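User: Sequence recovery, please. Input:
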């Protein structure tokens, strides 16, 4: 298990490094039938794992035809589905502050629902295997980008890249905390708040060192 989570931490580092290039992984196939099958599988994956036999059992004998890449493709597609559902849930937010919209998006993406968290643990173990060929890194990059999309950030150029780099570090730490101890909603929210506050303090320090006046309400990420 130590090896698995060591690979997860490494993949998070690689995802953050990949964000520095400003390039994103290609979109993956999306359709309602695949989404429905993934919902059924994710509901039991924490106990039964991500596999073709389990998928067939819960979603029909031909459900595996939707995922020719097997378990790795299933988990990567499920992560993308969770990203999309988070973006949809954020559409009605009335929060005017970008920093708080980012906070909301992170907490929506990492809910304390035990079935989802255990499914994610099993899924990350699948994506951390060498045969996954970068699927975990790609998934994390898509999620970080989706959080900014959900927060309605409109930055471009170097600001676009640096914001994703900063959020990558925040989200990576939060993800590991959520996987290990994310069953307590208040504790998880407090952890996110501490990480975002740390980014805000760092931004103010950089502004002082460079002789710039910090913005009145700087975004923490």
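Assistant: Recovered sequence (221 residues):
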């Amino acid at each position: 298990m130590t090896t698995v989570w060591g690979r997860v931490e490494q993949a998070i580092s690689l995802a953050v490094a990949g964000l520095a290039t400003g390039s994103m992984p290609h979109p993956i196939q999306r359709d309602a039938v695949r989404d429905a099958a993934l919902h059924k599988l994710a509901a039991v994956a924490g106990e039964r794992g991500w596999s073709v036999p389990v998928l067939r059992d819960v979603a029909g004998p031909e459900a595996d035809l939707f995922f020719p890449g097997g378990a790795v493709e299933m988990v990567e597609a499920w992560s993308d589905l969770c990203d999309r559902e988070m973006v949809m849930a954020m559409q009605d937010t009335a929060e005017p502050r970008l920093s708080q919209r980012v906070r909301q998006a992170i907490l929506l993406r990492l809910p304390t629902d035990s079935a989802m968290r255990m499914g994610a643990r099993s899924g990350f173990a699948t994506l951390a295997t060498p045969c996954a060929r970068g699927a975990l890194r790609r998934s994390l990059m898509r999620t970080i980008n989706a959080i900014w999309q959900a927060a309605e950030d409109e930055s471009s150029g170097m600001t676009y890249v640096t914001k994703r780099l900063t959020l990558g570090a925040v989200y990576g730490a939060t993800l590991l905390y959520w996987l290990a101890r994310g069953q307590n909603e208040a504790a998880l929210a407090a952890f996110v708040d501490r990480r975002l506050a740390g980014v805000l303090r760092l931004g103010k320090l950089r502004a002082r060192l460079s002789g710039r006046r910090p913005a009145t309400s700087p975004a923490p990420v």
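The first helix runs from residue 2 to 19.
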